[in-house]
Amino acid sequence: MELFSCAHSSVSETISTMKQLILSLLLLASTGHSHEPAAPAPKGTGLKVLVYSNTGYYRHPDTPKINRWLVLLGHENGFEVDVTEHWKDMRAEELSRYDVLVLNNANELDKVLPEEQRKSVEEWFTKGGKGIVGLHAALVHQTKWPWLNALGGCDFNSDSDFSKAKVTIDPAAKDHPSVKGQPAEFWIEADWTNHDHAVTGQPGFNVLMRVDETTYTPVRDYFKTRNGKPMGADHPIAWTHEPASGGRFFYTEFGHDLRSLSTPFARQHILEAIKWAARITVEAPKRN
Question: Mind listing the pLDDT tens digit for each residue in 198-251?
Fold first, then answer.
């Protein structure tokens, strides 16, 4: 009986030890899966961005894809990006959570944003010193929202087909982070928008880039019979506006579709536009 008792006790201790070991391993595995991301994200900047992509006029087919592109851009660079197409998310309380509003091809907004929400955007931008980044069609048919029309500096006339063209960096803007490091002129593909006038020389505006209309056909066939006009020698495609009343505005013609964003330059251009609008500066790493 003693032999059996000793053997039984030894087996019980072994089973107990094995249970503890298995439990420890399961807890360790569970902890690892719940706290270790598949791909480590960079340290958060605290920057919060709201993307608005509803439209009152033409709906660009790649708009949802660009929304996703912007969310991933934020994830990969340590800032939060939320996306909406509902006017309720443009109320003062909701806007107060964000530093930058990106208008992803959001055109003719007087048709989809009630006046109260438009006023909320104006106050959020001006009194809060916030930032707005407009992509491609963000300045299309905005004349019935006079504040946004004045902030952008111009409105839409026509556009081109997706075309490769030569663009130039304005010499005074060569150190702006959205174009820094680019050659003085280079070739790139996009849909180029013709505005009703150039913003060059308007108070508070700074042109970053221009496109050379002699290197592509500036008005596509659809608009040739609809009073479409090229802009000529002065065709800005990206600029900033810092109104005296406060806030920062950035506009770029890039963003008609993913093709125009699928280059290292476009990625830098949009990322740095958002950071500039949010007044975020990042020091270059020190070299040994």
Answer: 999 999 999 999 999 999 999 999 999 999 999 999 999 999 999 999 999 999
Name the CATH superfamily for 48-277. Answer: Class I glutamine amidotransferase (GATase) domain (3.40.50.880)
Phi/psi at 151 (5° precision): -65, -40
Domain boundaries, given as residue ranges, for the chain: 48-277
Beta bridge partners of 82: 50
Output the CA torsion 150→231→62→46 (10° steps).
-40
Q: How confident is the model at residue 29 (pLDDT cuts 50, 70, 90)?
A: very low
* C-alpha closest to that of 161 among 239, 228, 250: 228
Strands 80-84 and 185-195: unpaired
Q: Is the dihedral of CA 55, 258, 163, 250 positive or negative?
A: positive
Write the burial class of residue 171 (CB in 10 Å: 0-12 exposed, 13-18 middle, 19+ buried): exposed
